[in-house]
């Protein structure tokens, strides 16, 4: 079956999960399951922006360093960062030292404050872009979608940076706004059950 690999435990999984040893746990317990916590959602969209042009393995390996560098992705703290903090972060070998992406996180933290004022929570805003599952094509056959384009445009309109449609689509995959586990993957039904039990933020 396309996009499927059988693991050492005999379970079929999305093919990408076999590309690095640490991906099994991330795939099985995290990727594609619905997220309603604002901090986790903000962390994820920031990490996806850092991943642009790089491998997710690089980002995942540095995730704890990113959390330490960016105050656990508490956007209210990050929004207070100054030019001195940018220079400090550019010296932090534990993260990706890309000035534009670092500055984007600080910018997006300020935008997150405004978005919470507007929508009540990040979760309520992001989940308002959840597509109709019946409208989706076969999993893992595209890198953008009309919904990721719409969410990207909505974020950019509000001043967010490094949130193009491909980055936003990866964010939607990872946080369960869509269930993009491959057909036949052992986690597809688990993710579907988690989505069915999930109370959509409003």
UniProtKB/TrEMBL annotation:
<feature type="binding site">
    <location>
        <position position="27"/>
    </location>
    <ligand>
        <name>Zn(2+)</name>
    </ligand>
</feature>
<dbReference type="Pfam" id="PF03352">
    <property type="entry name" value="Adenine_glyco"/>
</dbReference>
<dbReference type="InterPro" id="IPR005019">
    <property type="entry name" value="Adenine_glyco"/>
</dbReference>
<dbReference type="GO" id="GO:0006284">
    <property type="term" value="P:base-excision repair"/>
</dbReference>
<feature type="binding site">
    <location>
        <position position="181"/>
    </location>
    <ligand>
        <name>Zn(2+)</name>
    </ligand>
</feature>
<protein>
    <submittedName>
        <fullName>3-methyladenine DNA glycosylase</fullName>
    </submittedName>
</protein>
<feature type="binding site">
    <location>
        <position position="185"/>
    </location>
    <ligand>
        <name>Zn(2+)</name>
    </ligand>
</feature>
<dbReference type="GO" id="GO:0046872">
    <property type="term" value="F:metal ion binding"/>
</dbReference>
<feature type="binding site">
    <location>
        <position position="14"/>
    </location>
    <ligand>
        <name>Zn(2+)</name>
    </ligand>
</feature>
<dbReference type="InterPro" id="IPR052891">
    <property type="entry name" value="DNA-3mA_glycosylase"/>
</dbReference>
<dbReference type="InterPro" id="IPR011257">
    <property type="entry name" value="DNA_glycosylase"/>
</dbReference>
<keyword id="KW-0862">Zinc</keyword>
<dbReference type="GO" id="GO:0008725">
    <property type="term" value="F:DNA-3-methyladenine glycosylase activity"/>
</dbReference>
<keyword id="KW-0479">Metal-binding</keyword>
């Amino acid at each position: 079956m396309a996009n499927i690999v059988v693991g050492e435990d005999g379970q079929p999984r999305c093919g990408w999960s076999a590309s690095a040893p640490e991906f099994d746990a991330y795939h099985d317990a995290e990727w594609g399951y619905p997220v309603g916590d604002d901090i986790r959602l903000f962390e994820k969209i920031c990490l996806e922006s850092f991943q642009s042009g790089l491998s997710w393995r690089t980002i995942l390996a540095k995730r704890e360093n990113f959390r330490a560098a960016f105050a656990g992705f508490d956007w209210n703290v990050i929004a207070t960062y100054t030019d001195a903090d940018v220079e400090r972060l550019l010296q932090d070998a534990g993260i990706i030292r890309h000035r534009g992406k670092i500055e984007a996180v600080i910018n997006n933290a300020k935008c997150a404050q405004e978005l919470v004022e507007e929508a009540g929570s990040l979760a309520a805003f992001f989940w308002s872009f959840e597509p109709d599952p019946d409208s989706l094509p076969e999993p893992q056959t595209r890198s953008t979608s009309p919904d990721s384009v719409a969410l990207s445009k909505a974020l950019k309109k509000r001043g967010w940076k490094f949130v193009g449609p491909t980055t936003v689509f990866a964010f939607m995959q990872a946080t369960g706004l869509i269930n993009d586990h491959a057909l036949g993957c052992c986690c597809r039904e688990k993710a579907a059950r988690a989505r069915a039990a999930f109370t959509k933020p409003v």
